[in-house]
From TrEMBL, chain A:
Upper lineage: Bacteria, Bacillati, Bacillota, Bacillota incertae sedis, Caldicellulosiruptorales
Pfam families, per the entry: Pyr_redox_2
Statement: the UniProt record of this protein carries the keyword Oxidoreductase: yes
Keyword Oxidoreductase attributed: yes
UniProt GO MF annotations: oxidoreductase activity
Entry protein name: FAD-dependent pyridine nucleotide-disulfide oxidoreductase
TrEMBL record, chain B:
Domain BFD-like [2Fe-2S]-binding span(s) in chain numbering: 401-452
Gene3D superfamilies according to UniProt: BFD-like [2Fe-2S]-binding domain, D-Amino Acid Oxidase, subunit A, domain 2, FAD/NAD(P)-binding domain
Source organism superkingdom: Bacteria
Ranges of residues in domain FAD dependent oxidoreductase: 6-356
Protein known as: FAD dependent oxidoreductase
A Pfam family hit: DAO
Length: 420, 479
């Protein structure tokens, strides 16, 4: 059986950054990336719009360009990778079972990094009534057909969901000559970036219908239209506000779900809020020697954050593979999301590794003029004023050495939000 | 095109396919005429997948007869055809004294119908055996021989086996005119094809009344009655291990909660008469009704686990019973109409009965080459790692996973195409590619690659389920 120090599952930006960082930190440079697709790069390969790398490279790149910079380094470093290879199982003993056209591989490793990304929620998951004709896509499918394969997917479209992906796809479809009739958003606000609303909708005159939902899909063979309606504050349809929009395409961009089937098989504890593993500040999951980063951990809006997080995960995976004893007798304190905060990552602080880290979180609603506080043992350690907070934007707060030194380890760290 | 047959069956649902396969036991030239591009495009793809025990139908009816007979032979035929069938038992749960009385009626009726093993179980028994059910349940009727199957895979298996044994299935053939020419029926399709046949069997589902009328046969009416469903993601532990029914009403067997043979949870159906026989839409009202009623038996049910919703349309006859008979006036025209629930259960028995009838009528000899066995496609998800390794050695494409949620390999998809799948839905029903939690989000483009390669057609020609259900509209540039 082949043996590695670190095996990274998933060759997207998270996997690439984690592998590179592990590689740097290791003496015995046995690192392997396993990717089920034909190419490394993950979802970035189909994101041909600009907007990647502003934070990390301080320049604006497209998805493939951003991925390419990391792929080049992987190839230069001669890090081993397998493409068109699907990991189907991970035993609690960390034996990896992967399959490709050559056969079934069993791989031993000291540490594993999960970087499997996420999948899209579907029309079925949000239970949109109506018929089930052709012409209903997720944003990711549409992106692949249009950007990678060069097909047109319809003539007139309605987009459901106004997060960044929905907004970007509205522009993309328009540029492809598909008329976007509307972007329909059930919430009273868009979870997309202001910049994207302007550049992707306003610039093209595409209406954004907030507090609206598609209540029915019509069509026998191909979509023939949708009925939309206004919703009240309970997100329930308001009677007699229905309106028919003729279209042959409906694009759902209604959220992403971390892809954790393998994590479950490996016995990793998941966080019901993020949908990803519960990790500590070393990105260690509940299973010793298994680390997680990127969209498999929690859904990110910026790939730059994915890269930074993955580097940390990769570094600790390398440390684990060389000095696993450092991870013995772990003592954790919990980092807890309270009022106004939907979730935090990491969810724990490892007492063996009290080192500065970025605490990432999302709020549970739209807030104007609020304060985020981080407290411990009844003491406020950090207070940050924010003029606008939305669930769509992931926030990050640096937990510095100075703050760490004030912690009382017998108590939780609490993150919460107050209106001012 | 003109072909001459001994027997033609209109409609390639589970009933039509069962009849077709049974007919191939005889030396007859037989075919099926189907308006869609694949089998199981009607009620046979969208139902509860339950093999009923037989306590529901009133004794003496065709329903009662074929239900019980069907249940008795289901296991054997599924065995021959390599189709999933699990006898898991069912419970009809009662919430009050009135409902307990109904259980007693069902028990007696079942006994008269010849159903074995029926018993009324106490509240304690119910909770000990199905701990997630509502504490408000007072008693339940237990039917140990109720089962679950995969209705569209059964239809596909019957189709494949019929083809193996020499039958024809003509797709895209929408019957619109039936004439008599001597001893033959001349059956025309909307696209101007026709075939001739000595015996014509009507298995057209919700359209069976119109076909009967076209043939100048008995007039009856089929009312479309829709039922809506939820499918939940595969749970780590099944919330119920048996099929859980509520006490039936005038409108039918009510909302059930059941495991599927593939490991998902199925909830539904409600019952509503609709105007349009093709209106397979789900509605908010219908879905809400289903969920609320299901919650009554399974209070912990969560919508978070829903992966898809769908509906099926029952072919409810105004005669209140299956219409299974040769027409009194039009000789050699046989109606197999109004096959609503328990039509799936009954289908295999109906097939035998009709084939027997027709063979006697035509004095047909036995087909000594008839092979009752059909092997399913080898499934990556079902094999051990050792068996997987062996398969990959033989067929490298078995190692290429196309559908990640259901672990479907390229080999399986190619095999499905070789066996007749032409559409995305056809592949989905045969392989489960696209049936998992991401509903094809990942594999749809990959399945299209394979379809286009194997059928040597451009991707713009690929449809979801035939006719105008195109996925892509135009090629913008070449690679
Ligand atoms: C439409 C769209 C627009 C976006 N726009 C921007 C933007 O403008 N700016 C920005 O910064 N970010 C943007 N993002 C977000 C950014 O692309 C993601 O945050 C980032 O790609 C996540 O990286 P990842 O490595 O975690 O996941 P992915 O890129 O999804 O990579 C995961 C990889 O794991 C592989 N994998 C999964 N399971 C297995 C297995 N069992 N075996 C083997 N391999 C497996 C997958 O094939 C995949 O390649 C956008 C995303 C989308 C979808
Ligand atoms: C909601 C629901 C739940 C059910 N639950 C169960 C259950 O749990 N257990 C059970 O035993 N039964 C159940 N049933 C009943 C069972 O599904 C049906 O009895 C069975 O599928 C009927 O099969 P069929 O072949 O008669 O009809 P269908 O499958 O509808 O096939 C009819 C075929 O005829 C074709 N056709 C129609 N018109 C023409 C034409 N002019 N020319 C050519 N072709 C034509 C159609 O395209 C179709 O393929 C349920 C049904 C429904 C709708």
């Amino acid at each position: 059986m082949e043996k590695y120090k670190v095996v990274v599952i998933g060759g997207g930006p998270a996997g690439l950054a984690a592998a590179l960082e592990s590689f740097k930190s290791l003496d015995d440079k046995k690192v392997l990336i396993i990717e089920r697709d034909k190419f490394l790069g993950g979802i970035l390969n189909q994101c041909i719009h600009p907007g990647f790398g502003l934070h990390y490279f301080k320049e604006e790149l497209t998805g493939p360009e951003y991925a390419h910079r990391f792929i080049e380094q992987v190839i230069e470093s001669q890090i081993e990778y397998l493409t068109e290879t699907h990991v189907i199982d991970i035993t609690p003993e960390k034996e990896i079972v992967a399959v490709n056209k050559k056969g079934l591989k069993r791989i031993k490793t000291d540490a594993i990094v999960f970087a499997m990304g996420c999948r899209e929620r579907t029309r079925g998951a949000i239970m949109t009534p109506g018929t089930r004709p052709a012409g209903i896509f997720t944003a990711g499918q549409a992106q692949r057909f249009i950007n990678i394969e060069g097909y047109r997917i319809g003539k007139k479209a309605v987009i459901v969901g106004s997060g960044d992906i929905g907004l970007i796809m509205a522009r993309r479809l328009t540029l492809e000559g598909i008329e976007v009739k509307a972007v329909v958003e059930i919430m009273p606000y868009s979870t997309g970036l202001r910049r994207n609303i302007v550049q992707c909708l306003d610039d093209f005159g595409i209406p954004l219908l907030l507090s609206h939902k598609v209540v029915k899909i019509h069509g026998k063979y191909r979509v023939e239209g949708v009925t939309i309606a206004k919703v009240d504050s309970q997100l329930q349809e308001i009677p007699s506000t229905e309106r028919f929009i003729e279209c042959d395409t409906v694009l759902f961009s209604v959220g992403l779900i971390p892809e954790n089937e393998l994590s479950k098989k490996a016995g990793v504890v998941l966080d019901s809020k993020t949908g990803g593993p519960v990790v500590d500040n070393t990105f260690s999951t509940s299973q010793k020697g298994i680390f997680a980063c990127g969209n498999v951990l929690h859904v990110h809006d910026l790939v730059d954050n994915v890269t930074k997080e993955a580097q940390t995960a990769g570094r600790y995976a390398a440390i684990y593979s060389q000095y696993s004893e450092l991870f013995e007798n772990n003592i954790h304190i919990n980092i807890v999301a309270k009022e106004g905060i939907r979730y935090v990552v990491p969810q724990k602080l490892n007492k063996n590794f009290v080192q500065p880290f970025v605490l990432r979180f999302r709020v549970d609603n739209f807030y104007k003029d609020a304060v985020v506080t981080i407290s411990n043992a009844g003491k406020i350690l950090i207070e940050i004023k924010k003029s606008i907070l939305t669930p769509g934007e992931m926030e990050g707060i640096e937990i510095s050495q100075k703050i760490l030194s004030q912690l009382e380890f017998s108590n939780d760290i609490v993150v919460s939000l107050q209106n001012i | 095109m003109s072909r001459i047959y001994d027997v033609a069956v209109i409609g390639a649902g589970v009933v039509g396919m069962s009849i077709l396969r049974e007919l191939t036991r005889y030396r007859l030239k037989v075919c099926s005429l189907e308006k869609m591009e694949d089998v199981a495009e009607g009620a046979s793809k969208a139902n509860s997948a339950i093999v009923h025990a037989g306590y529901d139908p009133i004794e003496g009816t065709q329903k009662a007869r074929f239900n019980v007979e069907g249940n008795n032979i289901f296991a054997d035929i599924c065995n021959e055809l390599d189709v999933e069938y699990k006898i898991i038992g069912s419970l009809v749960v009662a919430f009050d004294d009135h409902e307990i009385n109904v259980l007693e009626e069902l028990l007696q009726r079942g006994k008269r119908n010849g159903v074995k093993g029926l018993e009324i179980k106490s509240q304690e028994w119910v909770f000990a055996n199905e701990p997630n059910l509502s504490r408000n349940i007072k008693a339940a009727l237990f039917a140990p021989y109720s089962g679950i199957t995969n209705p569209y895979k059964l239809t596909v298996a019957l189709f494949e086996n019929a083809i193996q044994n020499g039958a024809d299935v003509i797709f895209g053939f929408e019957v619109c005119k039936i004439e008599k020419d001597g001893d033959y029926f001349v059956v025309h399709s909307t696209d101007s094809r026709f075939i001739k046949t000595r015996v014509l069997i009507n298995c057209a589902g919700v359209y069976a009344d119109e076909i009967s009328k076209l043939a100048g046969a008995k007039l009856f009416k089929i009312y479309p009655r829709r039922g809506q469903y939820y499918i939940l993601d595969k749970p780590e532990k099944m919330p119920v291990t048996r099929v859980i029914f509520q006490v039936p009403t005038e409108k039918g067997k009510g909302i059930l909660v059941a495991p599927t043979v593939d490991g998902n949870v199925l909830i539904g159906p409600n019952s509503e008469y609709i105007d349009d026989k093709d209106d397979t839409a789900t509605t908010q009202k219908g879905l809400d009704e289903v969920f609320e009623k299901a919650r009554k038996v399974l209070p912990n049910l969560s919508k978070r686990d829903v992966i898809t919703i769908f509906s099926g349309i029952r072919a409810t006859p105004d005669t209140h019973d299956f219409i299974i008979e040769e027409d009194e006036d039009v000789k050699n025209f046989i109606n197999v109409a109004g096959i609503e629930s328990p039509g799936l259960t009954a289908s295999l028995a109906i097939g035998r009965y009709i084939a027997g009838l027709v063979s006697r009528k035509l004095n047909a000899k036995k087909n000594l080459n008839f092979n009752p066995y059909r092997e399913d496609i080898k499934r990556f998800s079902k094999l051990s790692n050792e068996e997987r390794e062996r398969m990959i050695k033989l067929y490298p494409s078995f190692g290429n996973i196309v559908c990640r949620c259901e672990l479907v390999s390229e080999y399986e998809i190619v095999e499905a195409i070789k066996r007749g799948a032409r559409t995305i839905d056809g592949i989905k029903r045969r392989t489960r590619a696209g049936m998992g939690r991401c509903q094809g989000g990942f594999c749809l483009p990959r399945v299209m690659d394979i379809l286009s390669r194997e059928l040597k057609i451009d991707k713009t020609q690929i449809t979801k389920f035939g006719k105008n259900s195109y996925i892509l509209t135009e090629k913008r540039w070449e690679d």
